[in-house]
Amino acid sequence: MDNTSLKNASLFDNDPVLYAAWLYYQDGLSQSEVANIVGVSRVTVVKYLSLAREKGFVNISLDPSVFSTIDYAIRIKDKFNLNNVLILPNEDKQKLQDTLNMNKERLAKAGAMYLSQLVNDQDILGVAWGRTLYKLGKYLSPKSVKNVTVLQMMGAITPQADFKTGEITSLIANKFSGNCLNLHVPAVVSSARLAMELQAEPIIRHNFSVLNQCNKAIFVASNVQDDNTLVATHVLTKKEIAKYRDLGAVGEICGRFYDIKGNPLVSDIDLRVMGISLAQLRLIPQRLLLAGGIENIHATIGAIKGGYATDIVIDEVTASNLLKISN
Fold it and tell me: Are 29 and 118 in the same domain?
């Protein structure tokens, strides 16, 4: 060591372990730089740093605010046997929950990034509809893939000011330079007989048959309160959705209702729904669920317990509630 190094070392009672630990952890020097200053080999520096940790001179801790969502994701993945879990950390730790609109924006952005990684050549992607998925289509970056088909999984509703059902599939298909298939039928028709007749039409029958060929799907799970989109757009009445609540419904996916355990709940309305069934959805190999907000907690729990999702993108509020529930 030179004179300056010797002088500095004296501040540490000439203990090379303390001195090396200070230079590495506090001054941020590399192991090679520490070795040059202390006058030992790099291998010796590694031993010094290990000894410093063993003696308690150095205490390394992880910032909970950074790593808590990673820990949540690992635990949720194992608990519910999921492929992957992506958790959006709260932007403002002082707030328990983002506003509904901000939450949808963040879910849409994260979902767009995840979906871009998910889709590959030859995929047949089933897509639900809703405001979050419409935003996702806007945020999705173009990706060069071959022969991708994007298919609407439920019939249409009347155009809304902030989204149109048919545009969601076309937005996503365009980003993948793929083929877009829409179900050119209402989400729910007036009778079971009409539903059967429409599905017998050649074009509609073909598009419905492609649902059985989907290898990937993306969807949201909605709550069953009176502000559900199906009620707000007059596809279902408040009385009809109340009927499902009486049966124990906590959530809805593509017009299909289920209870807290994910069991499908069937009524005469199901015979009039023009779209994928929960049984069909479960058969799709990879199924991405976007979920967030206190108001959708039970819908999310039921969807996961029912096995409708293999991958999830959720907010931190949802994650903490998933970890609280028993198996």
Answer: no
Q: Are residues 251 and 113 in the same domain?
A: yes
Beta carbons of 110 and 88 less than 8 angstroms apart: yes
Locate 77 and state its tokens.
């993945």
The residue type at 67? F
C-alpha dihedral, 265 to 257 to 221 to 102, nearest 10°: -130
DSSP secondary structure letter of residue 25 = I
Per DSSP, 287 falls in state E
Which has the higher per-residue pLDDT, 93 or 59?
59
**pLDDT digit string (tens) for 268-299?**
999 999 999 999 999 999 999 999 989 999 99
More confident residue, 64 or 29: 29
Statement to judge: residues 44 and 141 lie in one domain: no
Same domain? 50 vs 69: no
Overall pTM > 0.85: no
Q: Are residues 42 and 82 in the same domain?
A: no
Residue 18: give its domain's CATH number: 1.10.10
Angle at 135 between CA 209 and CA 223, to 5 degrees: 70
Residues 214 and 77 in one domain: yes
Q: What is the structure's pLDDT at 8?
A: 59
pLDDT of residue 92: 54
